[in-house]
Amino acid sequence: HRKNMTRDEFLGHVWKWKSESGGNINQQLRRLGSSCDWSREKFTLGDPENSDDNMSAAVTKAFVDMYNKGLIYRDKRLVNWDPHFQTAISDLEVENIEKDGSFWHFKYPLEGGETYTYIEKDDEGNILLSEVRDYISIATTRPETMLGDGAVAVHPDDKRYASIIGKKVKLPISNRLIPIISDEYPDPDFGSGAVKITGAHDFNDYEVAKRHNIPLYSLMDERGVMVDSEFMPKKYVGMDRFQARKEVVKDIEEEGCLLLIEDKKVMQPFGDRSGVIIEPMLTDQWFVAADKLSKNAINKVNNGSIKFVPDNWKKTYDHWMNDIQPWCISRQLWWGHRIPAWYATDGSIFVGKTLDEVKMQAFNKYGTNIELKQDPDVLDTWFSSGLWPFSTLGWPDKSKDLIKYYPGNILVTGFDIIFFWVARMMMLGMHFMKKSPFKEVYVHALVRDSKGNKMSKSKGNVVNPLVLMDQYGTDTIRFSLTALATQGRDIKLAEDRIVGYRNFITKIHNASKFLEMNGCVLDKEFDIKMIQKPISLW
Question: Is the dihedral of CA 181, 186, 187, 191 positive or negative?
């Protein structure tokens, strides 16, 4: 594990690995026949042995400039948290997979034994159920998060609960009282229509909690282990989240508040690399105010300055961009561009291109030299990748290459990173260069395995094109991909398809050789319309 060594030792290992394996993609592209200008190859993290490499300087300048303009800020917000790697991760790295799971239905008793009349009606208004209750029924797939509930929410139009909005319920096993609030978020037709609001551990609940100033209770540490706090019952402290789930259910049942356990298929978020369930966690992170950057990028597509091919991907782009959230750009890892921020002992933040620059800022504030510690986090890889169209051409210097080649004409990319890379490049290009980095986005299919699954190193279903080319020849692989690349989404790369195209290529090759052996040459004056003999027509 990286935490068993120093940061410098870890980085030494990774740079060694990069030097050994970093050329693999380059060799695959060359072997496939890509006609790139290989002298311009760049690595987003820069080259530590080349003082002329400006990639790192470009990233630092972009961060500092955006921070000074209020476009980058530090905040405590909910993020996707990977308890295995102990870092925030992006939506792109989260796979939602349907698994066997359960809905646990619990009673949340009303304060002081109060009661209300609960009436359930069918679509035609006929009464199906009418009873006096002293509780609200709540269903959850994650009982351990109940320990952090801040409220119970019901829809303002849900007449079943109208008489008790504003009252309080007792949170089982915690002996905390939490309010009943009304909000548009709960769906009256789903379950009981009442939902628990756990603002520190659910993205939708977080928004509700912010709207109603509901307290946020963080339950876990970076490993997914229950933490010690004034609201956490002592018996759960130190338990893994899934062990705590079992104990919470058992204790609620013993308290008489378990109504029902319903076995159901449940969509669960998994880390695509770690394979563990992702936990929404309230943590201090760095964010980009993406809503401020997105406006120009949206307008460029809407006014036709930038086209998507096929054009149906414009809808996907619009949907993402118009509902854009703050972009979390900090990662609790060691491999990446280090965040150029330093902290004083009182928590003050100083941001600058160099340590000397921030030391001067601190001196101006305190009137003396003080100890500063650099933020240990690194930047999300999409931040440096978003600068790619101009950082690779010499920016922030106004180089000849930058003037000549920016903006480019066309970007060719897969649909799965339209938001994560295409949109980032457009937002950052518009901000720093005042022009979009390209005029057209050609969206190609993804190459998947024979079963239609996305290729992934962790799944072990990756096909190495070098091996395929050794087996079947480069022409065959190129032709297979070309033939399969319709304007649909995916290419299922099955070996029997490759064999079929190899046989086709062989026929073309043999026919060509037959013509050569018989002295056939191309006559540029020949008119194909003059062919009349049946065999020649065939």
Answer: negative
Q: Give SS3 for 207.
A: helix
Burial of 159 (0-12, 13-18, 19+ CB in 10 A): exposed
Biggest distance spanned by C-alpha atoms of the chain:
102
pLDDT in tens, 177-191: 999 999 999 999 888
- CA 404 vs CA 46, 63, 394, 407, 409: distances in Å: 22, 25, 11, 8, 12
Distance CA 56, CA 70 (A): 21
Nearest to 254 by CA among 354, 156, 171, 172: 172
Closest CA to 328 of 65, 73, 45, 61: 73
Helix residue spans in 35-105 (DSSP H):
55-68
Strands 349-351 and 341-343 come out as antiparallel
Strand partners, 138: 106
Do the Cβ atoms of 96 and 269 come closer than 8 Å?
Answer: yes
State in Å, rounded, how far the first CA of the chain is from the last one: 67
pLDDT tens per residue, range 210-223: 999 999 999 999 99
Residue tagged 């977080």 (tokens): 206
pLDDT at residue 482, rounded to an integer: 86
Q: What is the pLDDT of residues 236-258, one digit of tens each?
A: 999 999 999 999 999 999 999 99
**Could you give the 3-state DSSP secondary structure of residue 206?**
helix
Cβ neighbours of residue 243 closer than 8 Å, sequence gap 6 or more: none
**pLDDT, tens digit (0-9, with 9 covering 90-100), for 274-305:** 999 999 999 999 999 999 999 989 998 888 88
Amino acid (one-letter) located at 192: S
pLDDT in tens, 445-492: 888 877 877 777 667 778 788 888 999 999 999 998 888 877 666 788
How far is the C-alpha of 170 from the C-alpha of 257, rounded, in Å? 11
Kindly give the pairing relationship between strand 330-331 and strand 116-121. Answer: unpaired
Angle of CA points 444, 91, 447, to nearest 5°: 25
